[in-house]
């Protein structure tokens, strides 16, 4: 029983992969490089996480994503937003934030499914989190259900997409990961800096809140 | 009104793009290089087709697809099947053929939609053909409908996937293309050789039958 785990190097996908491992799957890890600002740090975290899980690792070059442009994660002429009020104050999230890479999860999922089919995996595990995900439309349970239907039709398989954290928040994810023995020093979340977390981007803020709520010290901060 | 047309260099996507043009869309052309055997010839056809349509052109490197492996289109250790009986004799198509690149259309579509969203396109046009398509599961109308639902959910847009040839056969496609003034000398179909069509792979056979049924001479053969 094999599962392909898409592992970004962030905490959510590391915990999702640890859940797959606990459920008894043999793990194959897949990571994407796409010229994001924090590419080298994230890739190192990926290799560390795969090593922790005894997983075979695949790294694919998805740098065409930077060619699409339109996101502050890959376009260095755009600024990563800091200390956004909308993040925690219940403001309407009508527009995706500037860190949104158009349909990034759809692209990553499609590629992951192709590799899963080739490698004979029954499932693809993802670290998607709906509530905590900066309002990206391709992080929703609705998207995931529809994508599953498309993938099963388009591959002629019953490959399942499993996002065990989709309805969790960052505090719960820290707790689950801690119970499963995830080494959070092998994860990285900042959108902006490769060297040390900026502490002010959406992703740093969400991570800090998660560790705060869980009452656990973040080994990376 | 803008449409992103995924243009492989084959005849189907060239005709689909010509249909989009006739419907009044401004055309953006997108082509994928993925280390397929006939990559350089297909890319040249793509540029010629874009030039014929007055289209802005985008070429993305999708060579990670060769890294997935499992298809005779990209894996030079596998043989491209020749003169397959199943192609025309109504044999059951229970297994995808060895030229199948796992979920290739799903991957290409996901990337195309991301670019379409960035460029403000209302539609993505595709050359998918269900009946004539070597039995690939990601060439079906069912897949397309489900992928449309996934894409609209995952992008928060109403981008439409339009496959105007999905229910046509190659003979009809040659006729429609001829009526629209498509220059078929700017298209290429062979799976195996970059230099001249082998005449025996599935794709060459389907093309030859199409021109034969339409009673039109193929300028490439």
List the helices and strands and how they pair.
Two copies of one chain form a homodimer.
Chain A: E1 2-6, H1 11-22, E2 26-33, H2 39-53, E3 56-61, H3 64-68, H4 104-119, E4 123-125, H5 141-155, E5 160-162, H6 170-179, H7 202-214
Parallel strand pairs in A: 1-2, 1-4, 2-3, 4-5
Helix pairs in contact in A: 1-6, 6-7
Name the structural class of chain A: alpha/beta
CATH class of chain A: Alpha Beta
State the largest interface. A-B, 41 and 41 residues
| Overall pLDDT score of chain A | 88
Q: Which oligomeric state applies?
A: homodimer
Net shape of chain A: globular
| Contiguous helical run count of chain A | 7
Q: Main sheet of chain A, how many strands, which sense, barrel? A: 5 strands, parallel
Helix content of chain A: 25-40%
Could you provide a short overview of the structure?
Chain A has 221 residues and is an alpha/beta fold.
Characterization of the model:
The structure is a homodimer of 221-residue chains. The first copy, chain A, is an alpha/beta fold. The model of chain A has no long low-confidence stretch (mean pLDDT 88). The first copy, chain A, has helices spanning 11-22, 39-53, 64-68, 104-119, 141-155, 170-179, 202-214, and strands at residues 2-6, 26-33, 56-61, 123-125, 160-162. Chain A has a single domain (2-214), classed as Rossmann fold, CATH 3.40.50. In chain A, strands 3-2-1-4-5 form a 5-stranded parallel beta sheet, with helices on both faces. The interface between A and B is large, with 41 and 41 residues.
